[in-house]
Amino acid sequence: MNRTEFLEALRKHLGHLPTTEAEEIIRDQDEYIRDAVRSGRNEDEVVRGLGDPTNFAGSLSAESKIEKAEQATSIRQQSKSAFSAALALIVLAPLNLIFVLGPFLGVCGILIGGWALSGGVLVGSVAVLGAFIVKGLFVSASLLAQISTLFFILGVIGLSALGAIIMLKMTEVFLKGTIAYLRWNLNFVRGRV
Amino acid sequence: MNPQFNKGVVELCVLSLVSKRDFYGYELVEAISSRIEISEGTIYPILRRLTQEKYFETYLQESSEGPPRKYYRMTTQGRKATEALIKEWVQFSESVKNLIQVGAKK
Question: Can you give the pTM of this predicted structure?
């Protein structure tokens, strides 16, 4: 494979990065290969040394996506970038289907469960409160029972709101952990130098 | 070079070279691979990351031999980090040396 072929292959595999970023990488590699050839080395040998363009591009784009995830400020941006970084890592090292996707989906399941629980109880208890205000749940019951029911409902609402807040924190921690793990995973995949 | 040793070591070499003067990519690879065995594609991802982390900044300079070259220059932030890393490395390698010598005497 010569310089032009390597750069073409690189361009193809950097496709999902922003154009300026991809073009910069291609420019840098072009410069590198030209410099190596100018110093008297064989072009094919230099290109071979750079390794498979698929891997070369794959690890650079995984890196770029992890960086984006690290710099993201909102949960939405973070999870979006973390997800595409995870995909890039799976493409780079298919075994990651087990090491990334498995644990990732597992923890996602727990989080979704937690959200569903706190969200469900919150919605349910607010609905009960609404019904209570409109109708009074136990019309025949004493005033004391009415009041204690009201406070019970308010308590449940408070607890589930607290649950939602805890879930939000947990989601943040989980995302941070995921991104740190993806970074570690990329370093591991690169492994030998 | 034993790949087990490599984590961070190549990065430290890159940092300490660029802390002395500005380098372009190939020049840096040549300088490092003349002393330790590295594969061709190792340095570039490190350069990109260090630039992203604002340890380096880059500029293009015309070269007499062809298209312009991208030079890497160390920032103040990078210099601070490099000094700290070198200090840590010196302490660490001293300790390892001492441990190996103690082991050899027995």
Answer: 0.76
